[in-house]
Design brief:
eleven-stranded mixed beta sheet
């Protein structure tokens, strides 16, 4: 279930959820799924989505999702992916530049969890270890007692993401895996955040400490497109983008560095994701 910041409960992508229920909850669906989650299939679909042959899908997508194209910089798109990674008009996503305000890196549905000392946390009735997520036990221990922010993007969300502060990032670390959907339906059967392809960096930020920022690939999203390796960044600057489909960004914060907004914590505790936008405040530095 999903809530807006004003408390309004909403539902999204019901048709997509029905398809995913068939894939993950039926025997025949799981046979098809085994084929779909392979990186080779994702690469093939990605090649098609980069080609001019995918252009007819653009208008179908706009109509299906009732997309307000006036929010975006529309041009002559060369492919579906060219459209999918379209840029939004800056005035439509104002960035909160106050130094002590933590911001969302993307448009998404957000859940926030405290990282317990045993490094196990709960996402939609499934348990995950931070060390599995990072494939790095030493790094995971640094975030004991901190917070895990999970930003889940759906296909009709804006798929570019930004830096949340000024600072210096390390090189990107890529972890190979399968490409499952990040829809909550899949979480009933698979440890998605452990098995999916993912890429992370440690960001040495000016106001929020050392933050792990991770992009998680989803079903049919084989390409996480980050713009920089080791790099000095500024708040609100574009960090990268996802191509075709929904995906997820996970951020880890050290103990005593931030205070998440109360409504987001409350919504997560009650089983709701919170709708947030690129550049919007989600917490405060301590």
């Amino acid at each position: 279930m999903i809530k807006k910041r004003n408390g309004e409960i909403i539902t999204t992508n019901q048709a997509q959820n029905k398809v995913l229920s068939i894939l993950y909850d039926t025997f025949g669906g799981r046979i098809i799924l085994k084929f779909l989650i392979s990186p080779a299939v994702s690469r093939t679909v990605g090649t098609f989505m980069d080609s001019p042959f995918s252009i007819p899908l653009i208008n179908k997508f706009i109509k299906k999702h009732n997309l307000d194209t006036s929010d975006y910089i529309m041009k002559h798109f060369r492919s579906y992916n060219d459209f999918f990674t379209r840029k939004i008009k800056p005035e439509k996503r104002p960035v909160d530049y106050r130094a002590d305000h933590l911001i969302s890196p993307c448009d998404s549905k957000l859940s926030v969890y405290r990282i317990q000392k045993n490094s196990i946390f709960k996402i939609k009735d499934s348990l995950y270890r931070i060390s599995d997520l990072l494939a790095n036990e030493f790094l995971a221990r640094r975030y004991d007692g901190g917070y895990c922010f999970i930003y889940r993007l759906e296909v009709d969300d804006y798929h570019r993401y930004c830096y949340i502060d000024d600072g210096l990032k390390t090189e990107n670390v890529f972890i190979d895996g399968e490409l499952h959907t990040v829809n909550p339906i899949a979480l009933k059967r698979y440890n998605i955040y452990k098995r999916n392809c993912r890429e992370y960096t440690v960001m040495h930020t000016d106001n929020f400490g050392d933050v792990v920022h991770m992009e998680v690939g989803a079903l049919m999203v084989g390409r996480i497109c980050n713009h920089h390796g080791e790099y000095y960044f500024v708040k609100g600057e574009e960090k990268g983008m996802f191509k075709f489909g929904g995906s997820t960004i996970v951020q880890l914060f050290e103990k005593g560095r931030i205070r998440p907004d109360k409504d987001i914590i409350r919504n997560t505790r009650e089983g709701f994701e919170t709708v947030v936008h690129y550049g919007e405040k989600t917490g405060t530095a301590l």
